[in-house]
Amino acid sequence: MALPTDLNALFLTFNCARTPINTEYFAASIAQSLSSQLPPDLIVLSLQEIAPISCSFLGGSFLAPYLDRFAVAVNQAAGASRHNGSSTRYEQVLGSNLGMTAIILLARPEVASSINWVETGGTGTGLWEMGNKGAVGARLGYTPSVGSDEVILTFVAAHLAPMEENCERRNQDWKSINENLVFGRVPQVIDARTKAIKDPNEEMEPLLSSATDGGSGPAVAVVHTLISSTSHTFFGGDLNYRTSDTKPHPDDHLSWPKRDAPASDTQHYSHFLDTDQLSRERNAGRTLHHLNEAPIDFPPTYKYSEAAQEQARRAANALARKAKRRGSNTSLEGPVHTDLLWAKHRTPSWCDRILYLEPPFEGTQPKVNLYTSLPLQPTSDHQPVALDFSVPLKGLPKRQSEPWVESPFAIRPHWESYRAAARRKEIAVGVGAYLALTWEGRALFFGTVLAIIGAWAALRSLLA
Questions:
Q1: Residue 156: which residues within 8 A CB-CB, separation 6 or more?
Q2: DSSP states of 243-265 as a string?
Q3: What is the DSSP letter of 99?
Q4: To which H or E segment does residue 185 belong?
Q5: For residues 120 and 211, is the Cβ–Cβ distance under 8 A?
Q6: Residue closest to 136 by CA, chosen among 220, 9, 45
């Protein structure tokens, strides 16, 4: 059997709006929109606002239910898209978060077994450098067969500053991510995989942790920057670059994109790309240095109105009813792109983007097969965006007197201490939010208070 020459992958980014996804509808959206691309060898999910701030900052078991839905959805989509008469199952290699931003790596079993090592890293760019905004990344070494080149792949999920007028702040977020996101080895992933290979009957749980927690996080022996001359790099998320530098006026929505507008009409979405901040800033060398983007041929992905989300909810309910009648949801038919119904207080923009590094060496450039948006989900005002691509299984040169690309910004001295301080703040805020904003937390708080009052009353009675 001929050995594969390319690794086929799918990078999907989605702002979850702190709400659990509708698993069946998300799976159907993947299966319907990407049917010709499924099933890839590797799937990477970049997730922003993955859960409420209490669950995101505390992480672990608080966050797991939100992440688990995505692994279920991916496998449902893969099961609905049969390849050579059989469905494909994906194994979760890694799930890691930095505050409210998360990254999940899923691979076909034969691909997962050829991953030699995994590194993670992350940094916050929000208030006090906490993870309400920021980035989390995963880097892996993949060797498809004995004696073949090791291919290094880097994936980063990011969430930059919001609002039309904050373009410069987003540029600063990119700079901060390069200065503070440092990759370190995660031995738990390979240790667990080695155990599974030795004992196939042993159930292996995927790693789920904060990317930079002290103690349980990665041990950094060598500083590994985001941009590396030896790694293919993909950077995607809610980058929040807009098509206007100011907030919209009350009547601006009358001229915004319409789905049925012809390409020659000024209300065709393509005309809004002329004022896209990300393209402008990248061409001027002020952000996303060294990275390229495939042509955009889909409407803006943000901000959809409540009416648009209601259309998506009706479509999701119709899908659920159809699945119930058939006794199965494996057909996954039903998702449709909603009308272009925009929220009037935000200019329609391509906030959700995926960019990549393009090496100059012959036979190493990624090939983009599809760059598209998925149908609006009933739980968010963002559309998911997906990049389907393939990477040649040819390693990049590891020893170069002059690397062909270098990090645009140097690593900040003492980045570890800054991140550790931010993590302590995240835990404090997470605990406070859990106690104040969730019914479980409030029940725990008031129960504790009543127990203390009761114990004090009992003690006073005994003393009396």
A1: 46, 103, 135, 136, 137, 177, 181, 226, 233, 234, 235, 236, 237
A2: S-SSPPPTTGGGGS--TT--TTS
A3: T
A4: strand 183-185
A5: yes
A6: 45
To 10 degrees, what angle do helices 306-326 and 23-33 make?
Answer: 90
Question: Which tokens belong to 366?
Answer: 């990624």
- Is-contact 247 345, C-beta < 8 A? yes
Residue-level pLDDT at 292:
98
Contact between 223 and 234 under an 8 Å Cβ cutoff? The reply is: no
Low-confidence ranges of the chain (pLDDT < 50): 84, 192-198, 200-208, 214-221, 329-330
User: Which ranges constitute the DSSP H helices of 23-63?
Assistant: 23-33, 53-58
pLDDT at 147: 79
Cα–Cα dist 302/316, whole Å? 20
**How many CA within 13 A on the CB side of residue 259?**
9
pTM higher than the cut 0.85: yes
- Omega prior to 295 cis, within 30 of 0: no
Burial 214-232 (b: 16+ CB within 10 A, else e): eeebbebeeebbbbbbbbb
Q: Give 362's contacts (C-beta < 8 A, 6+ positions apart).
A: none
Inter-CA distances, 461 with 447, 453, 455, Å: 21, 12, 10
